[in-house]
Amino acid sequence: MATKVIFKGYSSKTPVRKLKDMDLAKQDLTNHFNTKKGERLMDPSYGSLIWDLLFEPYDDTVEDAVKEDCVDIVSQDPRWNLREVVTYSNQNAISVQMRLRYTPTDQEDILSINFDRNLSEAE
What's residue 12's pLDDT? Predict the structure, then answer.
C-alpha cells in the first residue's frame, strides 16, 4: 500500500525537484533560517536574527538569543516540534543543530544549519 502524501512542493535548489512531506517541511525551515530578519518584503518579522548575531562576542546572552530564535522559528511551523537545540561557535560561524519531531508522521530528524560570517559579508 502506498503512503499518502500530505504536503507537496517544488525546489529549484536540490537535485530532487519535487519535494514532499518531511523533506518539504525541512526545506521550508531551512529557507526560514537562511533568510535574514527584515530581508523579506512586506514581512519584516520573517527570518532569523542569528545572521545579525554573527559579529557579536559569543557569550551566554548571544547563545540564549540564538536558541530563542530557533524556538520562535520552529514554533511558527505546525509540522514541527522542537525537541532540542545545541549551538556551537567559532570565530567565523555559529552552528545550530536541532532535534525535531515531524508531527504528521511522528518521525524525528536532525536539522543542522551553519551561519557563516564570510557568507554574511559577501552579500
Answer: 53
**Domains along the chain with CATH numbers:** 8-122 (3.10.450.40)
Distance CA 46, CA 75 (A): 13
Q: Which cell numbers hold the place of 74?
A: 520552529
- Asked whether the beta carbons of 98 and 70 are under 8 A apart, the reply is yes
pTM of the model: 0.82
Mean pLDDT, rounded, of the chain? 88
- DSSP secondary structure, 51-109, as one string: HHHTTS--SHHHHHHHHHHHHHHHHT-TTEEEEEEEEEE-SSEEEEEEEEEETTTTEEE
**Calpha distance 91→53 (Å, rounded):** 12
